[in-house]
Write a structure and sequence with these properties.
This protein has 314 residues and is α/β, with parallel strands linked by helices. It has 9 helices and 10 strands. The protein folds into 2 domains: 128 residues, Response regulator (Rossmann fold); 104 residues, Rossmann fold, CATH 3.40.50. The chain starts with 9 loop residues before the first helix and ends in an 8-residue tail after the last strand.
């Protein structure tokens, strides 16, 4: 197993991919977290027929490219799940803060404005583009408060989320915050300004261990990485590895190729990996269909907890 950090730099990302393929003979990439750099990799991966097996699901490329095999809830469906949950909680007035730096943030804004919010019965009453380097969000908090936003989707990373909640709290404004799995890190725990914050989780809630499949995950963490700070990305990485194991065990020989893995992936139909992911289906030489279902996690007493247990909603 080879790993590398591309630092969000598209040129560096492509160079790392080339090195792994040409010098380390990698035949697949598993659980890639590439919200800034996926586009840079894809042309080269197509030249060599190398699949992306699971990953961050933070942009629509995951359901637009035939070599991408998303695992768990895809981005538009995850955002819609958040909005459905807000409406179920009788919080119909929505605000949106979205970053300027990442394509995923722009996609979330466009999806929300162009029918995503209204599809769930939400009214978008305030939106603001922000920067991840922004030290303070008082202007955005006052704008959302004045517009009567009851719930705010935060399309940004964890450190910015912490600063947003602090800025709004200083204005005595305490909306409910929501996001998707990519932001659900342990770094957000322990802040009373984030109590009640919830997020759709694309794969199983990483803090549970009440089923054979999730118990195996927790046992592996305790055995091999007891100090690992778990997150939504950790759960996705585990589920992606389980998908690879399932595909590799289906008659692939001692020297597997990328094509062997692709053939195995194309045989996957309505697979949940024993409850680790909502149902996934892949079709030969076709982009994966959107994955509609999602789990839900929530900040309770300063810690992430599973609102839905091991059950996903659709």
């Amino acid at each position: 197993v080879f790993t590398a950090d591309d630092g969000g730099d598209p040129q560096r990302s492509l160079a790392l991919v080339k090195d792994m393929v040409e010098n380390k003979h990698v035949i697949a990439f598993v659980a890639n977290q590439v919200p800034f750099t996926m586009q840079a990799q894809l042309p080269y991966l197509h030249q060599h027929g190398i699949p992306l097996i699971g990953g961050d699901n933070t942009q629509p490329l995951w359901t637009a490219d035939s070599l991408a095999f998303p695992l768990g809830t895809t981005i538009a469906e995850a955002v819609l799940g958040d909005y459905k949950e807000a409406h179920r909680r009788n919080l119909p007035r929505l605000g949106l803060f979205y970053c300027i730096e990442a394509p995923a943030c722009t996609f979330i804004r466009d999806y929300t404005v162009n029918g995503g919010a209204s599809k769930a019965g939400e009214e978008l009453v305030y939106q603001s583009q922000i920067s991840l380097t922004q030290p303070d969000f008082t202007a955005q908090c006052l704008g959302a408060q004045s517009a009567g936003a009851q719930v705010i989707f935060l399309a940004m990373e964890a450190n910015s989320i912490i600063r947003v909640a602090a800025s709004c709290s200083r204005q005595n404004y305490h909306p409910l915050y929501v996001a998707t799995a990519a932001q659900t890190t342990r770094d957000l725990e322990g802040y009373n300004t984030l109590e009640g914050f919830y997020a759709t989780s694309q794969d199983f809630p990483y803090m549970i261990g009440n089923t054979p499949a999730t118990a195996q995950f927790q046992q592996a963490v305790q055995q091999y990485a007891p100090n690992l700070r778990l997150s939504g990305a950790t759960g996705t990485a585990w589920a992606s590895g389980q998908l690879l194991a399932k595909v590799a065990s289906a008659g692939i020989g001692a020297q597997p190729t990328s094509q062997d893995l692709l053939n195995g992936l194309w045989s996957i139909h309505d697979e949940t990996l024993n409850g680790l992911t909502p149902p996934i289906t892949y079709t030969r030489n076709q982009p994966a269909p959107p994955i509609q279902c999602y789990f839900l996690i929530e900040m309770k007493q300063g810690r992430w907890a599973s609102s839905s247990g091991d059950t996903y909603a659709c």
